[in-house]
Amino acid sequence: MGVDDPLYRRIEETVHRVLDGLPTISRSSTTCARGSARFLADEEAAAEANIRSTADEIQESDLLQSAVFVAKAEIERRIAGSPVPHFLADFLRQQWRGALARIYAQDGEESAAWSDGLARSRT
User: Fold this and answer.
1) Which end of the chain has fewer CB within 10 Å, C or N?
2) What is the secondary structure of 33-79 as a DSSP string?
3) DSSP readout, 21-44?
4) Domain map of the chain by residue range?
5) How distant, in Å, are the alpha carbons of 18, 46, 123 from that of 98?
6) Residue 3 gets which letter from DSSP?
7) Spatial separation of the C-alpha atoms in residues 34 and 39, rounded to whole Å
8) CB distance 105 to 64 below 8 Å
9) Measured between alpha carbons, how far is residue 24 from residues 10, 13, 15, 32, 38 in Å?
């Protein structure tokens, strides 16, 4: 097979076309790689945000459950410790428990608002 061979010329022509196109192919590959990297970074950021959001929701739900439990326990302790009229016990269990639970969840057990809320529920 010599330089004048049609197959040789066809191969040479193909090789030159590929070599001439390499800068374009290289730029396209680089652009594609950057786009893929950007997509993956965005997906990872979205997943992390979703995880944080879910964790925050779970933590808030746990806090609210704890607040209701603590408020209920405080009210029951006060009701059990002294004679309380039935209507007042019902009010404390149904209405004041919610108010105390909100105070506990928002301000915490060490807050002045919590102490004040407990003082108001003393019978």
Assistant:
1) N
2) HHHHHHHHHHHHHHHHHHHHHHHHHHHHHHHHHHHHHHHHHHHHHHH
3) HHHHHHHHHHHHHHHHHHHHHHHH
4) 6-120
5) 75, 35, 18
6) T
7) 9
8) yes
9) 22, 18, 15, 12, 21
Looking at residue 86, its amino acid is H
Both tokens assigned to 97: 């428990």
Residue 105 in contact with residue 70, Cβ under 8 Å?
no
Calpha distance 78→89 (Å, rounded): 10
What's the mean pLDDT in 115-122?
75
Q: What is the pLDDT of residue 81?
A: 76
Tokens of 69: 């439990």
d(CA 74, CA 97): 9
Structure tokens, 72: 């209920």
Kindly state the DSSP code that residue 83 receives in the 8-state scheme.
Answer: -
- Token pair of 118, please? 């407990």
Report which residue type is found at 34: R
